[in-house]
Design goal:
Elements lengths: L7 H8 L3 H10 L1 H27 L1 E9 L8 E9 L3 H11 L1 H4 L7 H10 L3 H21 L10 H6 L1
Antiparallel strand pairs: 1-2
Helix pairs in contact: 1-2, 2-3, 3-4
Amino acid sequence: MSLLGLTDQQLADFLGISCETFYAWKLSYPEFRESITRGKIQADAHVAEALYRRACGYSHPAVKIFMPSGASEPVSVPYTQHYPPDTKAALRWLMNRQPALWRDRQEVDVAGSLEHRLSQMTPEERARDALELFERIQRRLVDAGITIDHVATPEEEEGK
């Protein structure tokens, strides 16, 4: 059953037992556990081989059988069936085998976009944006239960 790709839950259902009993059997009977593991490894290897062949493309011998009009017997014609490489299968293979090189990722250059946004603002807009940021920070501090006893005003800062 493992060779057919059944999960532990499906195997337990097939055997008419609960998953807990199935897991207990795997712990108590090493031969049982090993046979399930071997079956799963073989099934995974078979699928991996098929995915690899699909990713790279392959050919195999085939036979076309047809009945020409007026013929008394069918005609068999051997030929080679070709399957081209499949880009999605190749990407899936590489993403699983070399995830650091092939995973889906989006890189966002936050510093560059912030610098660009600031460079497009007038000095007044930048000052207003800074005050709004300061107010948002104050609100978050209050929401978090953090109090600030005194915040220096711009005039107090200049006097230092």
